Amino acid sequence: MRKKLTILHTTLATTTTIPAMIRELYPDEFDIVNVVDDSLLNDIKCSGRMSASIIERFIQYACIAKNNGSDALLLACSSLGKAADIARELLDIPLYKIDEPMADQAVNSGNNILVLGTVKSTLEPTSDLIRSKRKSQEQSITCILIPDVFELYEIDREQHDQRIAEVIQEHLNTYDVIVLAQASMANAIQYITQGREKIVTSLPLGLQQLKEI
Fold this sequence. Notes:
Helices cover 41% and strands 18% of the residues.
């Protein structure tokens, strides 16, 4: 029986890649509803924090997913993780965070963890998520922002991916694990020829959890 899945996107960058990957992983298993509101991410970037208004709007989208008959909601944005935790308490359908399996794998892969992001607002929620899953206090988490890259995604995707790959390459020998904080960064791994096993991304990991539905 086909399941209905609502995906909440906060950027157009994920609206093509994630649904296509879901259809590849689960042929004919999901009817997908895409909900896009880039003002959520823009407001976090502008204010530098998760406001009550942003949380309230996210909960409204979560309720929409429940009321449109969805079997589950997938959050495609790492910046809204704390809002998702609150919404989980209110929903009676599963709410999946795309970056949660990535955090689990990161803490199981080494002690010296680097989180890379192209949007500043994703770094703190991602590092907090990883920190909440640490196996020991010896595990350290460092965050680095790659500036002036996120906007390239829609303009020049190849350059976007190559710029990220360059930064990954610079740090491969320094860290046990490198986490790419956003789903939009996942394709950069194609430009890494050695050391790929150190890199953890939310795609496709974050979609494999949908098999639970």
